[in-house]
Amino acid sequence: MTGARTSRAAAGVAAGLVAWTGLYLAIEPASRLAAHRLLGLSEGTHLGSAVSFFLFEAPKVLLLLALVVFAVGVVRSFFTPERTRAILSGRRESVGNVLAALLGVVTPFCSCSAVPLFLGFVEVGIPLGVTLSFLISAPMVNEVALVLLFGLFGWKVALLYLVTGLGIAVASGFVLGRLGLERWVEGWVYESMRQGASYQAERLGFAGRVAKGVESVRDVVGKVWPYVLAGIAVGAFIHGYVPEGLMAGIMGKQAWWSVPLAVVIGVPMYSNAAGIVPVVQALLGKGAALGTVLAFMMSVIGLSLPEMIILRKVLRPPLIAAFVAVVATGILAVGFLFNAVL
Hints:
By secondary structure, the protein is mainly alpha-helical.
């Protein structure tokens, strides 16, 4: 029975990959046909350029999103929040910061899960700095953004994003951990601590893990597709209507204030990685500097105002302020560094 389920699951995955590849290869000719033949829009016009961008990028990003969410859903079936807590429990701070940042990339995390994850980490005695490295890495080094950046810009930009994001998470968590900020955690959090927390690993076969991947696609893509389309629409407007030199003047290397301005603009925005990457693509295409754009993206997904509001349930304002200040400093350093060397 188990063998039959595994065979069916493997056949389903193979058929899905073939269908995905066929659809992906058909995007470019289909988008050109729709924009210029069916709609009759000229490539040289603002509207034609914007519509063509949208019709090409929307299915491309959604297909990439579905593929990566499926793959990450399978990977995440090995890393439950309980197992993550068990892995990090008892680790020294320096090693724990690195391990926590790495685990943040592959474990389930969103703003709504920030509080329960924080509580679970505190319960098993994980140091505050290690916990904060995880909380910084999980949204900032987003696997969806990583794969979309790879698909849109190539491996160098994707690797740059991964390395700098992990570096910020590790360094910020280590610094915050050395500042002795535990007194600024809400008192009721420590009152709820208990010793001997344990987990029971969920035993899943191949078919079960494939089912987890499909479930992730339904859940994640089903929730974020409006934000994806909204981000692509913004990107299409920038691509079609914003003059080439405008973004270079506002977000270019020569404007020293462009990096802090990008962070200030990005923090209050509410978006996810899938929605912000198409905007990043359009900004770069119009002459914005890579360091400035990376700082903007990291501030949107790593320092979002909704996440700070949720974390207020467990952290007092001085700790939240220190958290924002240290992470923002890291993001600013990344922006200035890459504007200087690239």
